[in-house]
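Hi Y.,

Following your request, here is the sequence exactly as I used it, all 117 residues.
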Amino acid sequence: MSAPVEELRVAATKLRETAARATPGPWAVSRIPGIGQTVDDPEGRLCVPVGTQWISTADGAWIALASPALAESIADLLDGVADVVDEHDPEDGCGCTRSDSFHPALRLARAINGGAS
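Below is the corresponding structure, written out as tokens. Let me know if you'd prefer a different format.
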């Protein structure tokens, strides 16, 4: 397994493990009197109290969009790209061109893993 393929697989695992420990999604933005803006799960349980003001109202929408409900699909995507790359070029893991999905997937994996993009 090449280093880039390993990065993709590590990111997929990290997504799954982190999501498994979080409040299940999907999440939604709401407002609770006395608390302010919040991000809640479908049963109305408070996931993220944000306070009375957002730096941007779009921040809450982004947080809600990035709920654990997306983790499995994104992890599957990263694993799928890793499978294709590993299958096509097992020596260095990347016989890809700039038009392939490999490069965006690797940038995503590196962002998840906290590495260079």
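Residues 15 and 71 are 6 Å apart (CA to CA).

Thanks again,
Q.
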